[in-house]
Every structure is written in C-alpha cells, then in structure tokens.
Amino acid sequence: MSSEEDLDKLLDHLPFFLKEHLTIHPQKEKLIEIVIDLGRRPEARFLTGPEYLSQKIISWQDLEFITKRVSKFSNENRAGIERTLHRISCIRNRQFLITGLTCRIGRAIFGTISLVRDLLESGKSILILGKPGVGKTTIIREIARVLSDEMEKRVIIVDTSNEIAGDSDIPHSGIGRARRMQVTQTDFQHHVMIEAVENHMPQVIIIDEIGTELEALAARTIAEKGVQLVGTTHGVCLENLIKNPPLTDLIGGIQYVTLSDEEAKRRGTQKSILERKAYPAFQIAIEINDQNIWTIHEDVQDSIDHLLRGTFAITQVRKINKDKTPSLKYKNLYTSSFFNSSLTQSNLELQRTSWNSINNDNQIQKNNLKSKNLVIYLYSLSYNLVKEVLTKFGIKVTLTRDIKKANIVIGLKKSIQKNNKLRNLAEHHNIIIYAVNQSSTYQIAKLLQFIVF
C-alpha cells in the first residue's frame, strides 16, 4: 500500500511554531488532524492518540494567519487548500468570528480497495457504511481511480464538499480519469446527482455522504436508470439504516404490513410486521468495522429481509492480517434479540392500542376511515410538532381541538391509559384511539403514514 501526501502544503499554511514542530515529528505519517482553538494549546491527533504540539496558547493572530491563507469558507464552514485533499473546518462564535479550526489531513492511499476488487468488477451498486473518520472518503476516491483508470469506465463524482477530489477546479490526481461535478450548496446535491445522469452519460456515479431523504430518492432514481452507484453514508451497520427514516429508500424502504391470522401463526410473528417495500437502490453493502476489517453483504435485499424477520443471513468478513495477507470468512447475521424486542418496545413500533373502543375489527374501521376525511384530535402531543410532520410528508388530514368532531384520537400511551373519561368519550362517539410510546417525529410520522396509507 503506497501513499501520496501533500502534507507539506498544509504545514505551509500554519504558524511557524506549529510547522517547525510537525515537520520533524516522528509520527508525521500517522497524523489525522490538527485542532487549533482560541485560548488553548494546539493539538495533533495521530493514529496512536492525541498530543499537544506546543506550550503556546493560540491567539486571534494565529487563527487569522491560517484563515487568510486558505480558500473562502463555504456555508458549511469548510475550506480547502488548492491541489490538495486537506479539509479545514471552522468553529464560529455568536458574532460569526472564527474561534477554532480543525485541519483534517487528506490522503490518496492506493491499494485500499484490494479487499473488494471483485465486487467492483461485478458492476453492482455498492453502499459503504461506517462511522465518521473511518476512511469512507478515502475508499471511494480509490474506487473512482480503479473504475476509471483500470476498468476504463465513465465515472462521475458528485463532490459536495470537495473532499474527494480536492478544493480546486482541477481535480486531484487521486481520482484518476474520473470526472468531478462540484456542488455549490449541500441542499443541491440531489439535483446534481440527477443532472450527472441526464447530461454526462456516466456508467458509474460516486456520491459521498448520502444523508437526506431527497438524496436517497435521487439515488433510487439513478439506480432505476441502470447506472452503477457507489455511495457512502454514516452508520455502523445495516440496522442503522432501518432505524433512519430518511435513508430507508437506500435499502428498499420499510413499511408496516398486517398479516392474516393464519400467516402470522405460520411465521410465528405478530400480525403487524415490518417488511421491505421495494428493491434496494444498492445491491451490495460494505460495513467498515475497522480500517482492515470489512463486513460484506453480497445481497442487500436478502440481508434486509432476514433482519426484519429476525432470521439468519450469511455475511462475509474480509480482513487484512498483520502480515498484509487478506483473509475471508463467513458468519451468521442474526438479530432476533434486536427485532423481536424492538417490535414491541423500541421506537420502531407504532402501538395500536386496544381499549373498549378498539377491538378485533379495528383494521376494518381503519380501512373505512380511508374513504372519509380524517379529523384527528391530539392528546398530550405537541400540535406544532404534528403539524410539521404533516407538512413535511404531505399528509392531508384535519387537526381539531374538539374531540366530538374527530374520528381519530392520537396521544401518548401513558397519558391515554390514565384518562378513563377520554376513552369512554371515544367509545361513545365511535372514535378510534391510536397511541405512540414517545412524542418523536419518527413515531408520529410512521403512525400517520400507517393510518393514511
């Protein structure tokens, strides 16, 4: 594994006392980032751990020295150094003055994807998951180079924060022959993703940090057009995506399904279960557990189905050993402890409570409601929070403060259980009561979607 670094270019932008110390530091090649905060000692973070660089306290002048030598900070408070992969992020005070800097070292490391070279050759779309700082951007930069140079494919990189190809109009050589499309604002990333397909005829599109519902939807649109996708997102494992509503489209979407008594008995589950709605946008998922240990889901569709059912699935664990030789082994992925308990206790569940007014015919009542104008009375839930959810998801219902005008009551389970008068009133007027465990956007959104759709 070789490395191409532009560390000296970053050091030239630092005050002399920091540059001098780092230039001769024995752990220079293991440097991850430099933290410079007003009124504190400067700190360097290496793979081996953090270390103070000087006894000198950082002053306004030191911060100004650096900020004047880098490019203009974006709306996301990020800047770069031309022809390098380094990223400089700032912290501001209430007056928008810069009081801290994080200088993250960018490296183009060749050979990082030797573990998954065969997956690239398959032509399937690949999603890479990992915690911040684990090296996802470095991996997709190398993927871009291999696909464009060695496999001779037409590759377009959607570079939102200029971390993949550097902060310059001329992309860094680390991406090979791949082309780079810059994104002026983070909110426009999904537009640029679609534009890349429509205007430039790529065979492969590479996206870093898919994080919003619109970006997930754009990724699905691109996948349906037959273009190979390589993307990254934050998360430790596939279960995190199931818990993350904006990103569930990446794995096919999750919905509640009501089974018949016979089918529920055959499966040994509850009648209301979670199932995948559609085909995933990505066929392969890679979990970056460690720099040298990766878990591979060769069939995302199969893995998601098994996770939702709490059954066994086979995954690969690929590892680079200390002697630099690769190894591969298979392991069972089994999460019954997660899902069997989650479906009755976690935030994923939407409780449909059973009081006097709610009986075994509740599903029939729910179906009948779909043909009516839904009028919802909120109990112990924030009116503004529910209104925000309705607006965001485009759900058309009416909220009322008069329970007698409602045909549905939604409230916190604990509060409804304590209010006998409310339950009796709902029964008298034939009003269905639904409850959520917590007053969270996710639970309310899922419940409303369950009721309306």
Describe the structure.
With 453 residues, the protein is of the alpha/beta class. It has helices at 7-11, 16-23, 60-67, 117-121, 136-150, 189-200, 213-224, 238-242, 261-267, 300-309, 336-345, 362-369, 383-393, 413-418, 420-428, 441-452; strands at 2-5, 31-37, 43-46, 49-52, 78-80, 87-92, 98-104, 107-110, 126-130, 155-159, 179-182, 204-207, 228-234, 254-258, 272-276, 284-290, 293-297, 313-320, 326-333, 375-379, 398-400, 408-412, 432-436. The chain folds into three domains: 2-107, Beta-Lactamase (2-Layer Sandwich), CATH 3.30.450; 111-345, Rossmann fold; 362-452, Response regulator (Rossmann fold, 3-Layer(aba) Sandwich). The strands form five sheets. It has a nine-stranded mixed β-sheet with strand order 11-10-12-13-9-16-17-18-19, with helices on both faces. The longest helix is centred in the first third of the chain and has 15 residues, at 136-150. It is globular and about 80 Å long. The relative contact order is 0.07.
Layout: helices, strands, pairs:
Blueprint: E1 2-5, H1 7-11, H2 16-23, E2 31-37, E3 43-46, E4 49-52, H3 60-67, E5 78-80, E6 87-92, E7 98-104, E8 107-110, H4 117-121, E9 126-130, H5 136-150, E10 155-159, E11 179-182, H6 189-200, E12 204-207, H7 213-224, E13 228-234, H8 238-242, E14 254-258, H9 261-267, E15 272-276, E16 284-290, E17 293-297, H10 300-309, E18 313-320, E19 326-333, H11 336-345, H12 362-369, E20 375-379, H13 383-393, E21 398-400, E22 408-412, H14 413-418, H15 420-428, E23 432-436, H16 441-452
Parallel strand pairs: 9-13, 9-16, 10-11, 10-12, 12-13, 20-21, 20-22, 22-23
Antiparallel strand pairs: 1-8, 2-3, 2-7, 3-4, 5-6, 6-7, 14-15, 16-17, 17-18, 18-19
Helix pairs in contact: 6-7, 13-16
